[in-house]
Amino acid sequence: MERFEDRTVVITGGNKGIGYALAERFVSEGARVVIASVDADVKEAAARLGGSDRARGVHCDVTDKSQVEALYTLACDAFGKVDISVQNAGIITIARVEDLTEAEWDATLAVNTKGVFLCCQEAVRRMRAQGSGGRLINTASGQARDGFIYTPHYAASKFGVMGLTQSLAKEVALDGITVNAICPGIIQTDMWDYNDRVWGKMLGDYGPGELMQAWVQNIPMKRAGRGSDVAGLVAFLASDDAAYITGQTINVDGGLIMS
Ligand SMILES: NC(=O)c1ccc[n+]([C@@H]2O[C@H](COP(=O)([O-])OP(=O)(O)OC[C@H]3O[C@@H](n4cnc5c(N)ncnc54)[C@H](O)[C@@H]3O)[C@@H](O)[C@H]2O)c1
Fold this sequence. Notes:
With 259 residues, the chain is an alpha/beta fold. The protein has two domains: 205 residues, 3-Layer(aba) Sandwich (Rossmann fold), CATH 3.40.50; 38 residues, no CATH class. Helices cover 46% and strands 15% of the residues. It is built from eight helices and seven strands. α5 links the parallel β5 and β6. The termini are far apart. The relative contact order is 0.14. The site of nicotinamide-adenine-dinucleotide has 31 residues, from α1, β2, α4 and α6.
């Protein structure tokens, strides 16, 4: 019997980057997945994961409560229930404090923090009604441990994820629902390509890839992470083996941050 056979997993931001790697891992271990994204290719990404009996792709903006409700309704209609929900969708921009716009602040908090809350809220509603427990896993960041330069809005949004994770974990513990957060470090995705380009220009005259190479030297394991590194942690937290772990925030970063 595979670890996630008969489990349904919702993954926001599941069409690319870390989220797609999570979806691949869950499908490979027997789960049915529903991936959600604002990107146009979300249905194609789902088709790459498997047939419609295995994976569905849903266009959903996690900042919009009615779209989030529709996402979980679709998951339940397609696969009968939701057992695991991974709040992974996120955005970042990088700007000096005087240049950071109010719109950037609002959008970042809306996607990274409110979006996580809205999905947790809807997942809890379904899981409580199902009565068989569940797993919520929220993507924070190394920036929930240690705010980096030029990203106060992103750091605030990810510290917020850690706080809401702890509060919800206490509220739903007796329902058999665990709530945990993860802090990826430097993971090779489109988001990190943007970071490399923009931070690289602002912090020095770094060419493409050079800032990442420099920062990787601070990682004890001396390599950037892959989506599959994050998937190993998320699959563990979603599994029966993690039944007694809740309200925790766990780094997955090759040892970059040890607090
Ligand atoms: N890449 C890293 O080094 C790194 C490090 C720490 C944390 N993270 C976090 O991991 C998560 C995934 O990052 P990634 O590197 O794979 O990024 P990515 O840019 O490759 O993917 C981001 C995903 O979020 C989705 N998304 C954005 N806005 C959305 C919205 N309003 N509604 C629904 N979906 C939306 C996008 O469609 C995309 O699928 C993010 O929360 C990010 O903050 C990434």
